[in-house]
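Example record

One chain of 403 residues, shown exactly as stored in the release files.
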Amino acid sequence: MTLTIWAITSTRAIMASPARLAAFWFGLQALWGALLGISLQARTSALHPDQALIAYGQIATIGALTAMLVQLVVGPLSDRGRARGADRRPFLIVGTVLGAAGVIAFYLAPSFGALLGATVCLQFGVNIAIGPYQAIIPDYFSADRAGIASSWMAALQSAGNATGALVATFIAPVIGVATVLAALLCAGCIVTVTHMSRIKPRAIAAQRVILPRGALDLFISRAVLWIGFYTILGYMFFYVRDTLHIAGAARATGVVILLFTVSAAMGAALAGRPSDRLDRRLVVNLGTGMVAAALIAFALLRNVEALYGIAALAGAGWGGFLTADWALGCAILPRNLMATAMGVWNIAVAGSQIVAPALATALLLALRPHSEVAPLYAFGLATFEVLLGAAWIWRLPRLAESF
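Predicted structure tokens for this chain:
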């Protein structure tokens, strides 16, 4: 993998570094790796111990709804600026400043109400940057060069998630966690924005939006699978604490997420060649089948010793899904409108953060299971969601081997 590739603009060839442009993604993913899998659950439990699972579902849903709404508003504003020849740096800078302040407020919140307010502010600020940043690859790289840039984004996403999990797991003072995450976010923004100031984005040509065949089914399948993912991620802490009764649940959950992330990177790498040679729908099903098998193993074994091995199995399967899912997206979504298409496609992920805790909360409120088995009910729901999303993928047409 080379560190630099050529991005062709309307006036001249300028050397753009995918590693530097992807640096901001590392800081953002470190933030989510800490918050979504560990800190949001741990902070909710500390500030609302009586109804922690229900309170978590509420705060996660409100935070994700904020994220989706902000992206839907900010994205078109950013695109209008790009159409007039501007770049997206102001959105990245404003989002980073507000996001860093939100991180500090989140970890220092003295009450559940303050935590809820800080979460909304954090999601609002960070997603001012995330929406425009989604278009970073098509802004600077042509379609035939996007693969190298995408590989850097994927690599730094996994590295950022793992780093965030480590920070939330092994740094004890909450102010220490907040400081490190805010510093990583700001550092990544500085590297990316500085590089953007030295290169020129590609010219944008107006295009008519046409919904490609299979795009809707791909969106639905992706959304349902991500709902399953966020259900697993959201309730893993409670599974570790309430079902397995592991002391130091936050640290144990951090190790689980770290293993899941590392295994996902390996699974993604191993699935690359099969995704080019086999039916990509089959590769999706092989990966999601491993995730479903891991969820069943969590429920049946309830074993501390098996926890980490099962998490690694689930991570490898999820990484395989991500690779095939990306290949399907590149094959189906229009290349000349990839930035717009990816923005809409991302709603499947942002919306899933809303739907996942909302569905699980509704299930738990309806059945009111004992706290020890409540996470297993959530995992049962996640198993159904994963299998449904995997089955839905077969509604797509059989695609050519290359795209």
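Notes: The chain has 15 helices and two strands.
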